[in-house]
Amino acid sequence: MALNGTPLLLLIDDEPAQKRLVSALAARGGWRSIFASDPETALATLGTRDGMHLDAVLIDQWNPDIKPFEIIRQIRKDRPLLPILVLTSQNNVADAVEAMRAGASDYLAKPISPDRLLSALNATLDKSDEKSGELRPLTEKISAPLAFDEIVGAAPQFLAALAIAAKAARARVPVLIEGESGVGKEVIAQAIHAASPRHKNRMVAVNCGAIPANLVESELFGHERGAFTGAFERQVGKFMDADMGTIFLDEVSEMPLEAQVKLLRVLQDGEVQPLGARMPTHVDVRVIAATNKVLEHEVAEGRFREDLYYRLNVMHVTVPPLRDRKGDIPALARHLLARLSTQPGMRSLGITSEALSLLMQHDWPGNVRQLQNVLFRAAVLCEGDALTPVDFPQITAQIELNQHLVTNIDDAKPSSRDDSGAITLFEGNGHIRPLSDIEADVIRLAIGHYRGRMTEVARRLGIGRSTLYRKLTELGIDNAA
Questions:
Q1: By the 8 A CB rule, do 210 and 90 touch?
Q2: Is residue 213 part of a domain?
Q3: What pLDDT does 125 receive?
Q4: Residue ending a domain, choose from 271, 293, 318
Q5: Is 204 a residue whose pLDDT tops 90?
Q6: Does one domain contain both 307 and 161?
Q7: Are residues 173 and 311 in the same domain?
Q8: What is residue 122's predicted lDDT score, i.e. its pLDDT?
């Protein structure tokens, strides 16, 4: 880590606007960025004082004629443990395969949301993630829309969600899809559009969390020339792009309150007023919104407008997490492998029953997206004709770590807990126990109570998984007797 304790990112990109955006997103998570505009400068930077203390490298494929593979190989040769992330356009599976074979740690597609970028960056700092196989969030490599009858899943909760979505497809009303990151909210939105009377027109997807707050209104509603400093040309907004079709507002909970007011007007009156325009423009757009938060809670906390919530929530679809439908994993794995095999650079692979059994033991905090990424990585590196447990070393390590933690907790007999399981706050001499000791007891109790399901432990404690694993190391809980 950098000498001042702030993690340091080397961003290789020659596009000034993209550099500003990515570095600003990284700064939200406490990262400091240094820049290189070309591979030669980047390699030279690695030998500087800052370069010696780098925590990660992010390569933006700024030119379609320049492939990052050679610089990845060179960096990997000189700095074998330095995490290397690659940012590129969506659905470029062939480049993803080549970059990973060259030694890239992760592969992210534009537009990248702040949460996904920061999760990928922070995972490079968390050594427990390297052991556990908590893969960094990659965007889906396969984006071809599926019809409702092509979506894989037989769990009752999931089928109930699909039934509501199918019913919503035939209506003209807005739809709100809630669910954790990676459960497939966009897949369901695409199915709704494909089954609707608007299927012959466009579905425009917008990631509200990936747009800087000061540009959200311009992106969604457009602007006239001269509307603000830097507005040299007129821009048509996403709503006008989606006229007569569907707009999918992903991460709608991240929309600034000012933009929420304008969105409410679109839903109420069917009118969009671009920045700087004198008169509004009528649009006919079906709105599907999605969020990985509970929007009702966001309303209660004052972060989301109540009137807009009720306008969006006419039809409500809740997609269950993968850990609640583990019986779907075998069918999902085979389905995803079959789709991966159609992509450039990939081949058809089977998967053994032992491997499927292993996958079903994992909690999948990243849900279907994480399962797809695990299969993608395994398929890229597999040398046989079928995936076996050997192809999933990180998943195996995670399961073993969880079992180890549960065993230690079950065997532990801490004097700081009474027979009821309550945690003692005072020492025998009447003084308050150190906070670190109390915190360690709380974490031990949670791990035992939830039988080592670390995603659930982190969720109940109100912290991230990477934070939880860091605390395990700091407090020595994984070695607790």
A1: no
A2: yes
A3: 74
A4: 318
A5: yes
A6: yes
A7: yes
A8: 78
Is residue 230's pLDDT more than 60?
yes
Answer whether residue 323 is part of any domain. Answer: no
Q: How many domains does the chain have?
A: 4
What would you report as the CA-atom Rg of the chain, rounded to the nearest whole angstrom? 24
For residues 174 and 307, membership in a common domain is answered with: yes
For 28, the token pair is 């939200």
Per-residue pLDDT reduced to its tens digit, 53-76 = 888 999 886 555 556 788 888 888
**Least confident stretch, 170-184, 227-241, 293-307, 311-325:** 227-241
Q: In Å, what is the CA distance from 260 to each residue of 200, 252, 343, 396?
A: 28, 9, 39, 44
Domain membership of residue 235 (yes or no) is yes
pLDDT at 129 over 50: no
Asked if residue 137 has pLDDT above 50, the reply is no
Tokens read off for 425: 């706050």
Query: Does any domain span residue 140?
Result: no
Query: Which residue segment(s) compose the domain that 464 sits in?
Result: 394-479
Please say whether the beta carbons of 377 and 392 come within 8 A.
Answer: no
